[in-house]
Specification:
With 327 residues, this protein is an alpha/beta fold. The strands form four sheets. Strands 3, 4, 5, 6, 7, 13 and 14 form a seven-stranded mixed beta sheet that branches. The protein has a three-stranded parallel beta sheet with strand order 8-9-10, covered by helices on one side. The N and C termini lie close together (12 Å). It folds into two domains: 186 residues, Medium-chain alcohol dehydrogenases, catalytic domain (Quinone Oxidoreductase, Chain A, domain 1); 128 residues, NAD(P)-binding Rossmann-like Domain (Rossmann fold, 3-Layer(aba) Sandwich). Strand 13, helix 9 and strand 14 form a beta-alpha-beta unit. The longest helix has 15 residues.
Length: 327
């Protein structure tokens, strides 16, 4: 099967940083399904792993943690999917990634693809959707309406709940803003700096947009903005944070890492299957939309390197997708 991999941790302007390669097609067993990958999207975690994780000696490492495709085989313990099902998922950081024609993934972290989306549109969603959902509703426990119908088309906001989304025009922020808009009455304050990012964010439903980025650079200012007994959630990687600054306001700190369930095989792994299914239903109902901002063509090493370069240089808003394999 075709795949894209690396053997050395090289700068992205080096053609060997990501290479077109050929690997054996894997076989499904247990809870694994074998997916024929039709489209992928690229996330900052991809280039962070490419830069830092060594490949097994004499082998290629295959990365990528966002995909949509078709189930072609199932393991003997699979109960959620059948051959032919269209699926979308982020995968497991500890396993071979989605930059390959075929990928094994545990069924419990996979969702049925939204029926109204193309493979590319669906591939943009899993990693950021899981991150945003877990952050909002599991870590921060933002109050939600029972369902979107409760809002009765009203734009009224609950003045007691405001959510500041830092880097809101990025992949996670783009879906998080929409989930806040459709599932809560919170006032949404998003941050963006470039004109195109500001417009993107307003189109997604942010109530206010301001310029701010990176938790570490503005940590003390963020704490000043938070209400007493408020909550601070992080997905970035600051070198250090002074937890003592949270004490006076009795603030809580929550770290979200969407790979935790799959890495540790937690008893509630299947929650990611359920939330992806819920989001697919919301998309098909027209409540939220895909966050594709850039389609870079077919899945080749050259095009994936371009995507990594855009993310490393912070040149992108929304999500970057690639679709199909060249002949």
């Amino acid at each position: 099967m075709k795949a894209i991999g690396y053997q050395d941790n090289l700068a992205i302007d080096n053609e060997q940083a990501l290479q077109d390669i050929t690997l054996d097609k894997p076989t499904a067993s247990g809870h694994d399904i074998l997916v024929e990958v039709k489209a992928i999207s690229v996330n900052p975690v991809d280039y962070k792993i490419r830069q830092s994780r060594p490949a097994p000696e004499g082998e290629y490492a295959v990365i990528g943690w966002d995909a949509a495709g078709i189930v072609t085989a199932v393991g003997d313990e699979v109960s959620l999917f059948s051959v032919g099902d269209k699926v979308y998922y982020a995968g497991d950081l500890t396993r071979s990634g989605s930059n390959a024609e075929y990928q094994l993934v545990d069924e419990r972290i996979v969702g049925c693809m939204p029926k109204s989306l193309s493979f590319a549109e669906a591939a943009a969603l899993p990693l950021t959707t899981i991150t945003a959902w877990e952050m909002l509703f599991e870590r921060l426990q933002v109050p939600v309406t029972n369902n979107s119908a409760d809002k009765n088309g009203s734009d009224e906001r609950d003045n007691d709940v405001s959510v500041l989304v830092i880097g809101a025009a990025g992949g996670v922020g783009s879906i998080l803003t929409q989930l806040l808009k459709i599932r809560t009455f919170a006032t949404i304050i998003g941050t963006a700096s470039r004109d195109e990012s500001v417009k993107w964010l307003k189109d997604l439903g942010a109530d206010h947009v301001m310029s701010l980025n990176n938790t570490e650079e503005h940590y003390e200012e963020i704490i000043k903005c938070l209400k007493p007994q408020g909550k601070l959630g992080l997905i970035d990687d600051p070198d250090s944070l002074d937890a003592k600054l949270l004490k006076t306001k009795c603030l809580s700190l929550h770290w979200e890492f969407m790979f935790t369930r799959s890495m540790f095989h937690t008893p509630d792994m299947i929650e990611q299957h359920r939330l992806l299914t819920d989001v697919a239903n919301m998309i098909d109902a027209g409540e939220i939309k895909t966050t594709v901002a850039y389609h870079l063509g077919t899945i080749t090493a050259e095009h994936v390197r371009h995507a990594h370069q855009m993310l490393e240089n912070q040149q992108a808003h929304g999500k970057i997708v690639l679709e199909g394999w060249s002949a």
